[in-house]
Structure formats: C-alpha cells, structure tokens
Write a structure and sequence with these properties.
By secondary structure, this protein is an all-alpha fold. The chain contains 5 helices and no strands. The longest helix is centred in the C-terminal third of the chain and has 29 residues.
Length: 129
C-alpha cells in the first residue's frame, strides 16, 4: 500500500510541475524496476496508482469548469455521457501504469538485478492412480 502511495505522490508532483501525460509510464516502470517483488505485485502497484490518480484528476476536471469539454468529447465519440469517458480514461490509465510497472519488473529480472521467482510445478495428469 505504501508503494502505491509513493507512486501516486511522485506522479502528482511530476504532473503538476511538467504536465506531461507520459509520467504515468515512466514513474511506475522505474519504481517497479527497483522495488517490485513479483510481476503480479508490480502490475497491481502500477495499475492502482495510475488508476487512482487519473480518477482523482478526472473527477476534479469533470466536476469543475472542464465538464464542458468532457461533454463535447462524449458527444463526439457518440457516448453521450461524460462519465463514460471518465471510466474509459481511468481504465486506459490503469492498464498503462500496470503494464509499465510490469515491464520495469521484467527489465530488472532481465538485467539480473532481481532473480526470477521459481515457477510452479505442473501436476502430472498422465499418472495412473
């Protein structure tokens, strides 16, 4: 949980300073490169952090003066409701952050910084009992 909060704070600070959308890829990737313990934990860490942050920013913008833009985008896409646009945006942001963090973990394994966890043994289904 603390990892998710650290990523959210880093994303928020960097987004506030520079306003580049691609921080959602860079921060989870680098953080998971050094801190993730498994590919599942890396994906969860990145997707939850990015999804929560994009949900918060999207809600803020939708509930303030930017709702006009959201309504126009929803009409342009044929959705009719800006809340659907927000939902799609959060899902895309969460998947982007999750895959970026998973990539960071796999890069750490590939560079030998982290050992790949042992694989599960498959059950022998051909054995006669």
């Amino acid at each position: 949980m603390i990892d998710i909060l650290i990523i959210i704070v880093l994303l928020f600070i960097l987004h506030t300073i520079t306003d580049f959308w691609w921080w959602i890829i860079v921060v989870p990737l680098v953080y998971a490169f050094f801190r993730a313990h498994s590919r599942g934990s890396a994906f969860r860490m990145g997707s939850l952090a990015a999804g929560i942050l994009w949900l918060a920013v999207g809600l803020y913008q939708l509930l303030t003066a930017a709702d006009l833009i959201a309504r126009r985008v929803a009409e342009m896409m044929g959705l009719g409701n800006p809340w659907i646009v927000l939902s799609i945006t959060v899902i895309v942001g969460a998947l982007t952050g999750g895959f970026a963090a998973s990539t960071g973990y796999h890069l750490a394994v590939g560079f030998g910084i982290r050992r790949n966890p042992p694989q599960r043994k498959e059950k022998d289904t051909d054995a006669v009992t």
